[in-house]
């Protein structure tokens, strides 16, 4: 294990840097928003009184608070769409490094809005900052998994991909820790609590330029084999990596006749059918499993469960710690308003719905998701072709790929 750490030191360092500015901020902003909720609602009302001379109705305050919480998801949605479209159009002349650095700048601007919102007496700045945070994490969550997968060798790809979830849960846990009233969750310091994630963006912005672009990008998109080999040596250490380079070359050959597909064309394309089924199942389960109800509205959920007010932050922290430990252990063993409405109407029985969704999803994934550990992208594609084309066409699809390979989508 020690030899592995020494050999792949560059890879592990880059995984750390990518995680700090990748999925970490997403997890951070899911959990941290609960802790200053009382202070922010009070600030909204005080600001309104100072402007108009009369207080807001409690329901109006709650509505504005709901906008602040949910606008993060709207920003994330727009960021994801823009990132996909931008990568489709610019993939031949734009590095993932530069794209992620631009994302860091968006996050820093958002942090400034948060930090000075109280000084400027503007709750609108919180709304704008939260929206920009969403856009930034929308970009990061597209770039981070792609980049981590591209920089890792085949034998470590499963582990490196799981670090995306590890950093996400570490972000949630960090938000819960520094959100405690003893640290930054007090009435005086809550703007700095919301702005603190700008630090992770700054760290990545400063350190990321010292790392190379992914080997597959350098070889496939840039056609620079020497730069590819140099990046591999920097990330994976010295050694015989010819087999990995050969896999990248095979991928390059199959992509010589790629074409860009629109969303409807992707949906109709038979060779991508089961990939879409599994992707939609996993992402839908992630949103409907109930975890977003716990994080976005954890204080309300625990308050409904009759927990003492002063204990709720620590109970929420315990939930985050359990998830973080589970995510770390998993890496070594080969979210929405509607949830709150369900909690309100069904009480604790709403989690039975989430249990059913998880059970169905687990069965589906167990039956149809091919094993990806230790396999190249082309080998994984061959496994999916067995599902897409059936057993009768398996021999054909395993030995020869379609003349027109599918590479990316265009909205």
Automatic annotation (TrEMBL):
Keyword RNA-binding: no
GO biological process, one term: D-glucose import
Primary localisation category: membrane
Membrane-spanning ranges: 12-33, 61-82, 94-116, 122-143, 164-184, 190-211, 276-299, 311-333, 345-369
This protein's UniProt keywords: Membrane, Transmembrane, Transmembrane helix
Protein localization: Membrane
Membrane protein topology class: Multi-pass membrane protein
GO molecular function: D-glucose transmembrane transporter activity
Keyword Membrane in annotation: yes
GO cellular component, one term: plasma membrane
Annotated ranges, domain Major facilitator superfamily (MFS) profile: 15-411
PANTHER family membership: MAJOR FACILITATOR SUPERFAMILY (MFS) PROFILE DOMAIN-CONTAINING PROTEIN, SOLUTE CARRIER FAMILY 2
Protein name in UniProt: Major facilitator superfamily (MFS) profile domain-containing protein
Species name: Buteo japonicus
Organism taxonomic ancestry: Eukaryota, Metazoa, Chordata, Craniata, Vertebrata
